[in-house]
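Quick one - first record:
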Amino acid sequence: MTLTLAFDSFKGSLRSDEVADAFAQGLCSVLPGVNINKVYIADGGEGTAEALVKNLNGKTVRTQVSDPVGRTIPASYGIIEHEKTAIIEMAAASGLTLLAPEERNPLKTHTYGTGQLIIDALEKGCRNFLVGIGGSATNDSGTGMLRALGFRFLDDCGNELSGGGEILEKIDRIDASCMIPTLNECRFTLACDVSNPFFGPNGAAHVFAPQKGANPNMVERLDNGLRNFARVVMQFNGTELNRLPGSGAAGGMGGGCAALLGARLERGIDMVLRAIRFRETIKGSSMVITGEGQIDRQTLMGKAPAGILAAAMQQQIPVIAIGGRVVSCPELAQSGFHSILCINEEGLPPQTAMRHEVAWENVRRCGIKVGKMLQKRMEQPV
C-alpha cells in the first residue's frame, strides 16, 4: 500500500514538512510496512518557494533588495537550476509584514524590490518564473518592479516617475526601450486566487488598499490612478486591463505583469501542483491524505486541499483531509472527501492547540487514527 501525504502548513503551528513527519510517525506505528510518499504543498502564498524547493531539489538564494519604502533588506527566493526556474514570493521583498503599521501607505509603497529579485534570478540563468503575489504592501500595479526591469514611466512633460501608487495618476507614457533584453526569453506565471478587476468598486484600490493602510481619500486617488494607467497601457500595446480577471490582484500587480511581461495568471494551488507534477506523483497511490490549519467552506475556494482533491478524484484515488479546526457545512459534506478529520479534541483552547508541540502530537495521533481505519479496512474480506 502506498499513501501520499500532501499537507499545506498549519499556519502558526507546523510547516508542511512537519505535518507530514508527525502524521507519518503515527501512521507507521500502526502500519509499519506502508509506503509513504511525502509531497510538500503550498497554495501559492506563504511557503510556496520553500515547498517547491523541497519537492524539486532546488536551493534557496539570498540577496539584498529594497523593501516597500526603500530600505535595503535581506530577501530570499528559490531556484530549480535544472529547469532554469525561479520561485519568488512577492511578500519577501514587497510584503505588508515588512512595515510597521504607521509606515503602511500604498501611495508611497512600491514593488521595486520584487523586480530586484527577478534581476538576481535572471543573472543566475533563470528564464521561467513562478511568482506568488499574496501579502503585498503595495498598490502600484507592479510599476516599481517594472522600473527595476528597465521600464520607464513618464509624465506629460517627459519626466521619469518613481515612487509608489501615487505615480499611477501621473503616468502619460510607457517607455520599454531600456527593458532588460533577456525578459523576452522569459515566461512568468503568477499565483492569483482572486478575480478582481483592475479598477472600480471591486478593483484593486477599493477592495485591497484599505488593508494596506489606505484611507478613503487614498482609495479614490489610487483607483483614479489605476484607471489612468489602464488607459496608458491600452495606448501602449492594446491590452484592456479591466477585462482581465485577476488584474486587480496584489494592488494591480496581476494586471501590470500580464500587460507588460505577458504573465499568465493561474490559481495558486494549480500552479504549485503543475510545477511538482502532482498528477504523475500520485499515480499508484491507494489514498492521499491532505490538510491545512482550518477546513471550512473557504477550503473549497482554491485552497490546497481542494486542488489536491480535484487531482486525486481524476484518478479515482480517495482523499482524507485533516485540519486543526473543521467547520462543517453542506458544501464540504458533498465535496468528495472520503473523510474530514479534526486533529484536536473538542474544547481544546485555540492558543493551546496552536502550540508547536501540541499540534505535532495531535497530528501524530491523527496519523494513528487513520492507520487504524486503514488497518481495519485491509482486514475486511473482499
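second record:
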Amino acid sequence: MEKKISKVEAEQLNNIAVLYKKNLYKDALILANHNRKKNPALDSISFFHNLIGLINLTLKDWNQSVKDFEKALILNKNFAEAHFNMGLAYYDMGKLEKSFKKFLEAINLKKDFKKPRDAIIQVLTFYKSSLPEQDNFSVANNKLQKLSYNINFSNIISDQKVIDFYYKCKSIVSKYINDFSFSKSQIYRRNNIDLNCERHKKVFNQFNTIPKFCFGCFKVVIELESVLDLIKLLFIFDEFKFLDKFDRKCMIDKKLKLYKGYIYCSSVEKVKYIAEQIKPILDKSFEKKIKITTKRGCTEFAVPYPDYKEIKKNNKKMMAYNEEWSKNEKIIDQQNYKDNLEKRRNKQKSLKGTTLSDFLIIHNWITYAKSINDLSTQKFVNEPNK
C-alpha cells in the first residue's frame, strides 16, 4: 500500500528531480539509491519508482525502467504518468503493441493528458493494432490506411489530386477526432535503423565536434515552392519503391520558410545515385523544375567546419573525422548511457500509406502555409459537403 509523502521524503524526491532536470542522470540515480538506503520508506512511494524509471529510461536501460514503472503501478494502478512512461520504454524497445496499450491506459485514466494521445498517434505510424477497434485513433488510422494516392509516375501530379485527397482524409478523421492539434511537424518514412541523431547533436552542442557516425551520413535535399508541392513529394516518397531502403523526411524549415524533403544515404556513391534516380521522377511529377542538391550531415555542423558538408567532385578527398574527437563521444556516452556505451532504439519500419499522424501533420503544414501567405493554400477553398 502506498504511504503519504512526508516533508523529508518530498525534499529527497525533489533533490533527485533537480539533478534529473539538469541532465545529471547518473548522479540522480546515485542519489536515489543513497536515499533509498537511508530511508527504505521511499520504496512505498509510487512517485519515487516512477522517477527512477524515468532516469533509467533516459539512460536507455529500458528493461530496468519497465520494472521501475511496474513497481509504481503496483502502488498506484491509476498513475497515468507511470503508464505513459512505461509506454515510452516499450516504444524504444520496439514492443509496439505493449506500448500502444500503455498509452491507451494513460489516456483512459486522464482524458486531458496530451502526451499519450500524441504518442499513440505516433505509434500508429509503425503499428497496425490487432486489438478490436475500440479507440477512435485506431479506427481513423485503419480507414486512412485503405486510401490510395492513385498516382502514376509517368504523369504530372495535379494540385486537385492533392486537394481531393486531403479533404477525403479530413472527412474520415473528423468523424472520430475533434482536436487536430499535434506536436509533430515532420513526416518520416523510416527503415528499421536508428540514426540516433539526438546523441550526435549532444556531442556537437557540448564539444563543437562532429561525431564519427555523421561523416557517413549523406542527404539528397529537395527544395519546393509550396505546401502543395510538399504533399506531392510525400506521395512520391511513399510510392517510389526504390526509396524503401532509405529514410525519407518531408518538413517545413520555418526559420527559412522553405519546404524540404530529405533522403538519407550512407555513402557518397549512394547519395549521388539516388539524386540521379529521383530527378526524372520529379521532372515528370511536377510542372516546374525542382531544386535537388546533395550534402553531408546537418547544416549546423558546417558553420564551424565549412568543408564538412561539401561533397567533392572528381573523387577529391573530403574532410575526414578527427580521431581525437572520439574522447568527446566517450564522455557523452558516459553521461547518457548506463553502461557507458552508445545504445540505439529498436526502430520499426514505417507503414505504407497515409496514417493519422501524416494527416495531422499535413493539416499543420497547410495551417502554417496560410500564415506565411503561401498562395497555393488559396486552392483549399471548396471543401466538399460532408
